[in-house]
Amino acid sequence: MPFLVALVLILLLQWLHLRLLRLELPERAHRWLPWALGILHLPLVVFAGIRLAGLSGMGALPFLRTLARAAFYFQAFTVMHLILAMLAEWLWRLVRRASPPAQDTAEEAPLDPGRRAFLRTAALASTGAAATFGTVGAREAYGDPVVARLTVSFPDLPPGLDGLRIAQLSDLHAGPLVGVGTLRRWRILTEREQPELLLLTGDLVDSRPEELEPFLEAFRGFRPPLGRFAVLGNHDYFDDPRPIWRDLEREGIRCLENAAVLVQRGGDTLAVMGLQDPMARNGRFRRMVFGPGPRPAEAARDLPAEAFRICLNHRPSEWEHALAAGARLTLSGHTHGGQINPIPGFSSARLIGPRTAGFYREGEDLLYVNRGLGVVGLPIRIAAAPEIAILTLRQG
Predict the structure, then answer these.
(1) 10 Å Cβ neighbour count for 62?
(2) Of the ranges 54-68, 179-193, 283-297, which one carries the lowest mean pLDDT score?
(3) Which is higher by pLDDT, 121 or 360?
(4) What residues does each domain of the chain span?
(5) Selection from 391, 394, 396, 393 nearest residue 190 by Cα
(6) Does the model's pTM come out above 0.70?
(7) Based on the number of CB atoms within 10 Å of its own CB, is 31 exposed (0-12), middle (13-18) or buried (19 or more)?
(8) Would you report the helix, strand and coil content of the chain in percent, each value rounded to 5?
């Protein structure tokens, strides 16, 4: 069903774009446009079908994936082109309505050439806008992330945990759009903050288990004194997650899937819990189920009552599960802060839920939603700078 919806959407965009291009391009090019657009989008349709059928082991898939990504970028350009063209069309109609009606004469020129010229100008403007949008967005996505140094106070924080420095990284999306050089830079910036704990809240890879290796290479040797812990995100379940679990554990990064670990500091106990992402039970891409999804009772099982509880929970929409496990502080990601926010003051992440970025409170319990570091789909960020969160726990 998702494949059919995507296919219908692609065909609709192609039809609308075809109509627009026929206005903008010389008539001699019209006969080739359907073929050109069809050939361009074919890899995207085939790749999506293969992925949804769970056939990611095919040898030609990496090359096909590159072609599909190019088609996806063209689709993004198409959407912007169509939006600006519609705005231009509306503007043209407003101008025509505001203009006094011309006298009917035999020499009067038809209106269509003027409309065509206007739309051609709008098309050139949309191309320039897309280039500017992409340049600014790429600079924000691949520039140095914001290091958010945050103090988190709890009146009942055990004295031994006062001053604990935690680094939270989320949504790195190691893969085609995030290479080892970028990952190394993030590691250096994080290590410079001298955290005692490194907590990773999911989407370590873009879609395939083998994409984890650049992340492991970049963060190898970075060992905060109190340990490194992680949960997987929805993208980590796009393929078989078992190699990710295995390789994280081999590198000394404990993966907490409905599990917890106790950390001792200053004579007091911190419980770091992790909840499994709902995608584990989805089976959408591999037709396999890799877990039950979030199970707060399992995560909190046998934890001492005096332990202060922090929960790693990839999706902020699942905060209720973390609260059910007794989490005082929940760390999430997933939203990217909207990633691309063209409307000032409005986060695109609000389309998927109300918790988009920053702190949220439920009584005395807190949720922090990290904007993440990587990108999905398009290699740009607009008004959603990548983030490394350094949280210092305080009593008070």
Answers:
(1) 10
(2) 54-68
(3) 360
(4) 2-97+111-139, 145-395
(5) 391
(6) yes
(7) exposed
(8) 45, 20, 35
Residue 293's SS3 state is coil
Can you tell me the distance from the alpha carbon of 153 to that of 143, in angstroms, rounded to the nearest whole number?
Answer: 31
Question: Distance between CA atoms of 251 and 236, rounded to whole angstroms?
Answer: 17
Please name the helix (run of DSSP H) or strand (run of DSSP E) that holds residue 152, with its range, or none.
strand 146-154
| Neighbour tally for 278: CB within 10 Å | 18
Cα(348)–Cα(77) distance, integer angstroms: 18
**Which residue has tokens 């979030």?**
294
Task: Name the nearest CA neighbour of 172 among 183, 180, 185, 187.
Answer: 183
Q: Are the beta carbons of 178 and 374 closer than 8 angstroms? A: yes
Amino acid at 69: R
Residue count of the chain: 396
Answer for the pair 302, 309: CB distance below 8 angstroms, yes or no.
Answer: no
Band of the pLDDT at 277, cuts 50, 70, 90?
A: very high
Do residues 384 and 151 touch, judged by C-beta distance below 8 A?
no
Which run of H or of E encompasses 259? strand 259-265
* b/e map 96-116, b = 16+ CB within 10 Å: eeeeeeeeeeeeeeeeeeebe
Look at strands 197-201 and 268-274 and give their pairing: unpaired
Q: What percent of the chain has pLDDT over 70?
A: 87
Single-letter code of the amino acid located at 201: T
What pLDDT is recorded for position 343?
87
The CATH architecture one would assign to domain 145-395 is 4-Layer Sandwich (3.60)
Got the DSSP string for 323-358? HHTT-SEEEE-SSGGGSB--STT--GGGGT-S--SE
Distances (CA, A) of 318 to 54, 195, 272: 27, 26, 17
Residues 6+ apart with CB under 8 A from 110: none
Q: Which two tokens stand for residue 395?
A: 């009593």
Token duo for residue 40: 């361009």
Cα gap 359→330, rounded to integer Å: 10
Say what the pLDDT of residue 125 is: 74
Backbone angles phi, psi at 93, to 5 degrees: -65, -40
Residue 91: what pLDDT? Answer: 77
Q: How confident is the model at residue 111 (pLDDT cuts 50, 70, 90)?
A: very low
The number of beta carbons lying within 10 Å of the beta carbon of residue 272 is 24
Q: Residue 35, Cβ neighbours under 10 Å: how many?
A: 9
- Report, as an integer, the average pLDDT of 327-349: 94
